[in-house]
Structure formats: structure tokens, C-alpha cells
């Protein structure tokens, strides 16, 4: 049976450091940036993985037979449908992957 997956892409440590710095500066009443929150586009720039990582992940999904591949969130997550759970098992054996399963409460 088809298997829906979310692939979380690793962000660069510099982007995460910049995000943390931004968080503290807009949250600190003593900072000149206090209250100057950023929009989703700016957040996406901070947390987006390197283009090379994104391309590798996309090709990895395509080679695994995935369909309906799309980017979600701030371009740090991909959603796709794999043809079967056996493909997932095979991919876990070959790659540096960690599989987590979630079930939405309303889906039960």
C-alpha cells in the first residue's frame, strides 16, 4: 500500500544560530529589534537547507519511486508518497535515516 512520508531536511548550523539570535533580539525589551517580528519568507531564508541538500533529497525520493513530492513549511520539509512500506524498509537499510511514525488523533 502507498506510504505517506515527511522528509525533514537538516538545516545549516549557521542558519539555526541566526534564527536563535533573531529570536532573542525580537524578544528582549532592551533590544533595538524588540517586537520587530519577521514574516514567513524571512524565516524560510533562515531555516532553509542548502540547495544541494534539497536537490539530493528530491532525487532520493524520485529514485525511490515517490510521487506527489512537494515542499512544505519553510522549505525544510518535503511531503511525498512512496509506493509501498517495503520501499521504506529498503531505504532505511541503505541510508542514514530515522523513521518516526505519527497518527493524527482525528484520523483514528
What is this structure's SSE topology?
Elements: E1 3-8, H1 13-27, H2 40-47, H3 51-63, E2 67-72, E3 77-82, H4 85-94
Antiparallel strand pairs: 1-3, 2-3
Characterization of the model:
The protein contains four helices and three strands, in the order E-H-H-H-E-E-H. It is elongated. The longest helix is centred in the first third of the chain and has 15 residues, at 13-27. The protein is α+β, with helices and mostly antiparallel strands and 108 residues long. Helix 1 packs antiparallel against helix 2.
Q: Unreliable runs, pLDDT <50, ≥5 residues? A: none
Please tell me how large the radius of gyration is.
17 Å
Helix content: 40-55%
Apparent shape? elongated
SSE pattern: EHHHEEH
The span between the termini is 18 Å
Instruction: For the largest sheet, list the strands in their spatial order.
Output: 1-3-2
The largest β sheet comes out as:
3 strands, antiparallel
Strand residue percentage: 15-25%
Structural class by SSE content: alpha+beta
Give the beta-strand count: 3
In DSSP terms (H or I, runs of 4 or more residues), the helix count works out at: 4
Q: Averaged pLDDT, please?
A: 81
Amino acid at each position: 500500500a502507498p506510504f505517506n512520508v515527511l522528509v525533514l531536511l537538516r538545516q545549516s548550523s549557521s542558519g539555526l544560530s541566526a534564527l536563535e539570535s533573531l529570536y532573542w533580539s525580537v524578544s528582549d525589551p532592551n533590544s533595538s529589534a524588540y517586537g520587530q517580528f519577521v514574516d514567513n519568507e524571512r524565516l524560510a531564508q533562515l531555516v532553509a537547507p542548502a540547495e544541494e541538500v534539497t536537490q539530493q533529497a528530491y532525487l532520493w525520493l524520485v529514485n525511490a519511486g515517490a510521487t506527489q513530492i512537494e515542499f512544505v513549511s519553510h522549505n525544510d520539509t518535503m511531503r511525498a508518497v512512496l509506493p509501498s512500506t517495503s520501499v521504506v524498509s529498503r531505504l532505511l537499510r541503505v541510508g542514514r535515516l530515522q523513521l518516526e511514525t505519527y497518527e493524527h488523533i482525528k484520523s483514528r
